[in-house]
Amino acid sequence: MASIVIGGLSQRLSTRVAAATSALALFFVVCMGVGAWLVASGMMRAQVERQMGELAQARAVHVSGILDTIATGMSERGDRSVGTSENVRIGAIPVNVRYLGMADLGDWNKAAMILGVGAGRLSAENGGTIEMMQAINTGVASPSKALVWSVRLDHLTRRLAGSRGNDGGQLVVRVGGREASAAWGEKLTVSSVVAEAEVMLPNGFGRGQMVVRIGADAADLDLPLGQYALWLSIIGAAATALAVALATITSRRLTRTLSGLADAATAFAFDAGGSVDFHVAGDDEIARLGKAFAGMVERLDQAYRDLDQRSQALLSNAERVAQVGSAIWEPGQSRQVWSEQFHAILGLNPADVSASREVFFDRIHPDDRTRLATAIDAALQAGGRRVVEEFRIIRGDGVERVAQFRAEVARDDEGHPIRVDATIQDITERQRMEDQLDGVVRDLKRSNEELEQFAYVASHDLRQPLRTVRSYLTLIEDSIEDKLDDETREFMDFIRDGVKRMDALITDLLTYSRVGRRVADGPVDTGRMIDLSLLDLQAEVDETQAIVDVPDGLPVVEGDSGELTRLFQNLIGNALKYRNAEQVPHIAIKCRDLGAFWQFSVIDNGIGIPPEHRERAFGIFQRLHGRHEYEGTGIGLAICRKIVERQGGEIWVENTPDGGATFRFTWPKMRRQVTTLGL
Amino acid sequence: MVGMRNVEGGYHILLVEDDLADAGLVRIALRKGRHAVTLHHARDSAEAFGFLRRIGANFTESPRPHLILLDLNLPGRSGHEILQELKNDPALRGIPVIVLSTSEAERDIVRSYNLGANSFISKPMDADEFAHHIHTMETYWFDIVRLPA
């Protein structure tokens, strides 16, 4: 579609260039034509006028000659009687000659005759007749008679017509306010070019004027002009046609390179593949443009190749590091595109194989092929989308690896699968570790179950004999009360104490073993937990009249409420138990925000713990004091440590400056990833 | 060997307990009590149901007990299993069962009540306390509560 548009554009461009050039050419031709016409016709007219002027002059000379001849002929004529009249031909022109006596002169100017001067006049006879009078002296000093000759104008013009060619003209005579004219030929028209020449009248004719007026026929003048115009038109048309043709060809040639350039640019812009050839021959602007385009394409191509190489390298590195290989293919096509790492995971060299479904499946363990193929086919079905399957690869060196195959099907708007994007990852190591971890988990579970069984046995079976001993000791004591001496009574107290301590040890051990079991971690308000533990310790607090400072605004933490209560109860209980006999117990509870942790402190003014015993204090059944001083099995702080450490915190003891002990523990704000093992 | 003693009139209690020492504690406590109670002692499931259902030569005359005191930790079938069978038997279901166990485990308590136990008593460590518990139990079941005739 794009190429059609481009073609249309180039067509229009060339047409426009051609039309513009043609119009310019036509304009010049018309201007030249009109100018040439004006110049040529003016020149022609001038030429004709000049020639006609000469012609008129020649006619005038001719007429003048005829008249001279007649006049001369009259002068040489012999005397005739007055009153005679005759017609003679002089120079083939009929002339009427009359002899007049003085009396007959009439309106002729007598004076002119007397003076011997001729006189001429124009009469209207026969369309115009020139008359001339000459006095004749017949031996006497004064004239006695006169000779009058008259020539008709039309006879004169006939003579002119006969003497010279087939032209036409007019003879005009003005004498004494009269005018007469005669014409010959028919070419003298108003529109034609007219030339005039004055005719020399014979001496003595008097004041008169005679002109020859000749004109060229319009046709005579127009014909060459018409031919000239015709030629001009033909030449103009031919020039125009030539100009149009040349303009078209030139514009075609110009726009062909341009449209070739445009086509190449379009191909480059819209076509993904294929090389693009820009017209670079020549040195004109288009060639330079072509070269510029070619340069741009080259640079773009180079940049694209660089980018492609870089991204390929990047992808390749990323895949190698992540040990993930990627592949793309179109459903139904055998040919696929695999990344380097994809090849590597399959144990193939990209140079040796051509990526295809067959090659891929060839590398898969025969037992896994059907399952994987079915999974991929299912994903290609309507509604399918993802595949996540694990399978075994048998590499060329015979090594078996475990890989995970993941694929996603891309679909068009109508839901047809168009592309499959797949990755494979070598998970052999991971699976081996998972297997190991599974084994550890199984072991832990089993040991956990055993521990639970132990706890149950401890709670029931271990205590049962103790109970029997203790119960019957009481019964025996009751029955032989009066027979006991002090020593025996003391022995029996020892037995009772031993049994009691054994029972306490069992109970505490059970409690210790139960830390972290069957707990429900969740948000716990530590302030409330401290209140609860103080409630349990109410008797001791009252007894010792201890002061316990609990700040407001203690945080809510993640943990088990029972465990947190026990933690605070043990720590506060310890502070009460190991009080300094000489002062009122003062216990302060503090909490600091350490960012990722809360740090709680239980500060007392009791007897404190010597530095060398600080670590030991948290050991199970570790006691720092004799039973005669302080009761207890020595499990309390061990339980505290177990509770704190289960949450990822730490517990330790410091000395309070005035001699007491400060127990501190940290409690993470973010809940630790607690395993399902309940450890 | 069934330690069994019939006392005319008064209450009959069946104690299911394999520990003779504990059984002795119960017996002594009951002896010191205010009520005339005949204690029948069965040491396992077989003896208990033999007594209750009058199966076997020794139990032809056995009375229907007013209460059953049941230990959980027994040889063979456990106390829970006995409890389950008792409560599933329409003829025996009506007899209140008091679990008397050394166990303090929550799961034992919950399971006992779920199976229909009427009370759960943890055996105290101390003999005097034990006697006190038994006497309180007597007061509750024989003086306060009305039992089926």
TrEMBL record, chain A:
EC annotation from Swiss-Prot or TrEMBL: 2.7.13.3
Keyword rRNA-binding tagged: no
Keyword Flavoprotein: no
InterPro entries reported for this sequence: HAMP_dom, HATPase_C_sf, HATPase_dom, His_kinase_dom, HisK_dim/P_dom, HisK_dim/P_sf, PAC, PAS
Entry's transmembrane regions: 17-40, 228-249
Signal sequence, renumbered to the chain: none
PAS domain residues: 338-383
The protein's name in its UniProt record: histidine kinase
